[in-house]
Design the sequence.
């Protein structure tokens, strides 16, 4: 009998978010009567297809144990790493006894609290038969410029071929784990999971996502995230 394919959420949350200039990591800043990470995880847990969500937390993190959502039975924890890719790999290794090679993994940024259930379900439905997997992304509507070291414009980029990578990013468990492990072994810096798959010669698919799936990076992003949450 064929084992049923499971879906796992992975949320790397060991970063400190220095650009926020706050007294704590950005995932613990208040947002609509919760913290940013609570908003994010609540959205992911609304997706019934997800078997569990693994959160990669820094060992010195004093905030996570105090959150009620950390006790949710569908929320698992793993040790966070120095870089984002290290945290994702740690989370993948932590479920090695529960996941099988062909299970799907959806990696989502802790600082993207406006992700909608419908976008996650769209990603799953569109990619569940895909040989590689793919990512939520946003087409670029701005005119794009290439510059030199002095910030002088050298070229105008064809925006029809440019997409902004969002999360979740969805790949098979074993394929992503192996790709990230090779990247770690070779000291390659991965800013997202699709990059690791691309270095394996794979071609992840783009799934058009919502424009309100913003990543909180700077102080002004919090107010925008609050507006989006209220509108949703």
Sequence:
């Amino acid at each position: 009998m064929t084992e049923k394919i499971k879906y796992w959420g992975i949320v790397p949350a060991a970063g400190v978010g220095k650009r926020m200039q706050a007294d704590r990591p950005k995932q613990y800043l208040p947002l609509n009567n919760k913290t940013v990470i609570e908003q994010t995880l609540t959205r992911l847990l609304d997706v019934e297809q997800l078997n569990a969500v693994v959160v990669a937390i820094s060992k010195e993190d004093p905030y996570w144990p105090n959150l009620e959502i950390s006790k949710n039975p569908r929320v698992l924890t793993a040790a966070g790493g120095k870089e984002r890719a290290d945290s994702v790999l740690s989370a993948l290794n932590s479920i090695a006894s529960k996941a099988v090679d062909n299970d799907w993994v959806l990696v989502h940024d802790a600082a993207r609290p406006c992700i909608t259930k419908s976008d996650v379900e769209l990603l799953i439905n569109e990619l569940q038969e895909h040989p590689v997997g793919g990512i939520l992304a946003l087409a670029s509507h701005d005119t794009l410029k290439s510059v030199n070291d002095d910030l002088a414009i050298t070229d105008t980029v064809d925006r029809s071929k440019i997409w902004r990578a969002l999360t979740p990013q969805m790949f098979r468990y074993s394929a992503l784990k192996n790709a990230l492990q090779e990247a770690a072994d070779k000291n390659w810096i991965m800013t997202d999971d699709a990059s690791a798959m691309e270095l394996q010669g794979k071609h992840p698919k783009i799934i058009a996502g919502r424009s309100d799936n913003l990543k909180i990076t700077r102080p002004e992003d919090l107010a925008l995230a609050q507006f989006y949450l209220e509108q949703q």
Remarks:
- Residues 173-185 form the longest helix (13 residues).
- The CA atoms of residues 16 and 24 lie 7 Å apart.
